[in-house]
From TrEMBL:
Species whose genome carries this gene: Streptomyces orinoci
Domain called SnoaL-like: residue spans: 9-116
Gene3D superfamilies (UniProt xref): 3.10.450.50
Name of the protein in its database record: Nuclear transport factor 2 family protein
The organism's place on the tree of life at top rank: Bacteria
One Pfam family this sequence matches: SnoaL_2
InterPro entries: NTF2-like_dom_sf, SnoaL-like
């Protein structure tokens, strides 16, 4: 599994199946993973290693309960992919819903994800987490 489309498709298949432990095989040892947002939201911020990327995905279920997740479009340009869609998550600490469109920017080099940048409604996320 080395081409960008195959890696992205398998990544989302595993996320959809709840196979968070298996995501580690997709990340390079050094990665640029960033989720923009309020510092009070535990999973926002930058990660730079495979271990930190895996820990990020393992942390999400502690705080979020998926309600809806849909991928509308995947754009591939060589090593880069942009995935557009919509997600609705229940924020466990508050019981509030986080409803947001998203764009995820991936870079895949030699079959490994080297970049994962999440663009989502960070204000709505902060508010559903009880911040702001």
């Amino acid at each position: 599994m080395s081409d960008t489309r195959t890696v992205i498709d398998e990544f989302f298949r595993r996320v959809g199946n709840g196979d968070i432990a298996g995501l580690g095989e997709f990340f390079a040892e050094t990665v640029d993973l960033n989720v923009y947002g309020a510092e009070e939201v535990p999973w926002t911020g930058r990660r730079t290693t495979k271990a930190e990327a895996v820990a990020f995905f393992k942390t999400l279920p502690e705080y979020l309960q998926p309600q809806e997740f849909s991928v509308a479009k995947v754009f591939i340009d060589g090593e880069d992919a942009v995935v557009l869609g919509r997600m609705v998550q229940k924020v466990k600490p508050t019981g509030l819903l986080f409803d947001s469109p998203f764009a995820f920017h991936f870079t895949v080099v030699d079959g490994k994800i080297t970049r994962y940048i999440a663009y989502e409604d960070s204000l709505a996320l902060a508010r559903s987490f009880g911040v702001g």
